[in-house]
Amino acid sequence: MPTELKDLPKCPIAVVLKLLSCKWKFFIIRDLLEGSRRFGELKKMTGCSQKILTVKLREMEEDGLIERRVFAEVPPRVQYTLTDIGYSIAPVLEAMAQWGTDYKQYCKIKNKLKK
Length: 115
Fold this sequence. Notes:
Blueprint lengths: L11 H8 L3 H10 L4 E2 H8 L3 H13 L3 E6 L5 E6 L1 H4 L2 H25 L1
Antiparallel strand pairs: 1-3, 2-3
């Protein structure tokens, strides 16, 4: 059942935390920003277990962040792609990546000063 407006927190930051409540969802989005992926590719790229990946992909599909496309082939092929709203979180991930890089640099400098 898709998320309804009435079920979302009033605080916009809390909305983001509700939708992206675990690290795996961030890794899934990170990897889908490069393009569509099959389940096995996402599993390998994220390092996530099959069970958790299945659950998180279903949640993200239900929330409208990703799209699941099944191809009528033998064996069946399933591909996952970010939706437009899923792609719109890219600047947030880029900012997080930059902050993480900056923080690592801060720690490096701080450790040098201690020596």
